[in-house]
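We emphasize that the prediction below concerns an isolated chain of 144 residues; any contacts that depend on oligomerization or on bound cofactors are therefore not represented. The input was used exactly as deposited, without trimming of termini.
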Amino acid sequence: MQYDRGDGNAQLWRARFFLKTEEYDKARDDFLTAEKLTNDYYSIHAGLAQSYAGLGEPEKSADRAAKAAEIDFTRFGFDIVSIAQPYFASNDRTEDGVTFFDRLLVRWPNVAWLHGNRSALLRRLGRIAEAEAAEKASKEAAGE
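Result of the prediction step, given as a C-alpha cell string:
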C-alpha cells in the first residue's frame, strides 16, 4: 500500500488499522513515525501503549499509557479497554497485563478500575488471594 509518509494523520490512520488487524509491530512503527509528524500526542501514546502490549513489552506499554493518561485521564479511562485488550485476549499476555497495571497503580493508586482490571488478570492466573486483595482495593478506591 502506498501512502504519504509526510502526513501524520495518514500515518495515524494506518497505525490504527494495524492495531485492528493485530499487526502490532507495524502499528508501533507507524505510531513512532507519526510522532514526528503530528501533534495528536494522546492518540500516539495510547496507540503505542496498545502496540507495546501486543508485542509483550508491558513496561513500555505502561509508560506510554501513563503519558496518554497525563494528557486526558477521562479519555484514557474509556480507552483502557482497547489499550489493555492484548492482555485479556491471550493467556500468554496475562502476566504482562499484571505488570502493566502494577506500573500504572504506582502512579494512580486510588483508581478503582485499575485495581479491578488487575484483579481480573490475577484470577486468570489462579492467584486468588492477590486477586481478592486487588478487588478489595478497588472497592476502597471507589468508596464502597
